[in-house]
Design a protein that fits this description.
Length: 400
């Protein structure tokens, strides 16, 4: 990366850091289903669009919300066709239902995919004449969004706390993000009982996604005291509770801690952004349809090592906060201890360390990641396309 490009990126990052304490982020209001339903009714709303997935609906996880809405006198329309990764076409189908049925508020029950789809509906409702892809990037959602209630059934994306949503462009086979503080849910219901039936693999993938949010937010150059506190709490909780939530899925305490961790990590990266792990994971997810958290888990150690000494100070501090070493541990040693703990945690929860990436795809994948990350993500060390290719080669599963 040439000096002019680097300078431009760092000027953007400095601006993000200076703006961080003044960002219009607000934490969603944590409430019961009944309180959320009554608040919507009191605000003059009458018809809710519920965005969810077929499996979530079949497991009966939407019933508490539906019951509360009915008791409050609210009508509910259900869109349950959200795929594993929400596409632009999926959002448009949900928007059509929202308009046709005269809905005036939105709820999502599920993991990051239904919540991102619901955010897409909110964005399109606020800007009905603008296509979703025109809102790609930061702060491009115009107009007033409808009230939004988020009910997470996984503990990973933290989307119930964030201003970001990620969508797949089915035609281009790539993902893109929309970031706007208007998309932060107004209400959130964190119910650990809804996560008890998660399969171990989903528990692992989503938990490592939460850890990646926390780490990338913590080590970036736009951190503030608030986001660092959220990130420290989230990382420590994931290291402490993910193995138990994975091995003993009915442990309500572990499930509760992971939900809180995911929310804290979501708040951290909403305030301080992510980094090259997410840029690469989005590129790979768009190309191969692999679980986002699994991609993050495999990529995270390699990206952290690619940052080198630029990330050591903050990684060392995070290692201390997570009780992986003592304050007196040398900085480089503490940073490496943290990275190794990420690797051992991935192995503990059954996540593969190598990814099925086609060698011939690597240049294009690295280019997509570079376009997403530079200059938006305030990373500790700027990496160009060639350096991102090196990361992908390192994590690629070699064919026998």
């Amino acid at each position: 990366m040439n000096i002019f490009r680097k300078t431009y990126c760092r000027v953007v990052h400095l601006g993000l850091k200076l703006a961080s304490p003044f960002l219009p982020y607000r934490m969603p209001r944590s409430c019961t289903y009944e309180a959320a339903a009554q608040a919507l009714r009191n605000a003059g709303k009458g018809r809710l669009l519920l965005v969810t997935g077929k499996n979530v609906r079949a497991r009966g996880l939407c019933e508490p919300l539906l019951s509360a809405m009915k008791t409050a006198g609210m009508e509910t329309e259900i869109f349950d066709a959200v795929p594993a990764d929400p596409t632009v076409a999926c959002v448009e189908a949900a928007v059509s239902l929202y308009r046709e049925r005269g809905c005036d508020c939105v709820a999502a029950v599920g993991g990051g995919s239904p919540m991102d789809c619901a955010k897409g509906v909110c964005a399109r409702a606020a800007s009905p004449k603008r296509p979703l892809k025109a809102m790609k990037g930061a702060l491009k959602v115009k107009g007033k969004v409808p009230p939004f209630l988020a009910v997470p059934t996984t503990a990973g994306s933290g989307s119930e706390m964030t201003a970001a949503a990620v969508f797949t462009d089915g035609e281009a086979h790539e993902k893109f993000a929309v970031f706007s503080y208007k998309l932060v849910p107004e209400f959130v219901r964190q119910d650990p009982a809804l996560t008890l039936s998660l399969p171990p693999a989903v528990t692992a993938d989503t938990g490592m996604d939460a850890l990646t949010h926390a780490v990338e937010a913590y080590i970036g150059r736009a951190t503030a005291k608030t986001s660092r506190n959220y990130a420290e709490l989230a990382a420590f909780a994931v290291f402490s509770h993910l193995p138990r939530a994975y091995a003993e899925g009915n442990d309500l305490g572990a499930r509760r801690e992971m939900l809180v961790a995911a929310g804290n990590a979501g708040a951290a990266f909403t305030l301080s952004y992510v980094g090259y792990v997410h840029a690469l994971a989005h590129a790979l997810g768009g190309a191969y349809g692999l679980p986002h958290g699994r991609l993050c888990a495999a990529l995270l150690p390699h990206v952290l090592r690619a940052y080198g000494k630029k990330a050591h100070k903050k990684l060392a501090r995070l290692a201390v906060r997570c009780k992986l070493c003592e304050e007196k541990t040398p900085r480089s040693e503490a940073a490496e201890l943290f990275i190794r703990r990420v690797e051992t945690l991935s192995r503990e929860v059954g996540i593969p360390q190598r990814l099925p990436i086609k060698k011939e795809d690597i240049p294009q994948l690295a280019a997509r990641a570079a376009r997403e990350a530079n200059p938006l993500y305030p990373v500790p060390k700027l990496l160009d396309r060639g350096e991102l290719e090196t990361v992908l080669h390192a994590v690629r599963k070699k064919r026998e």
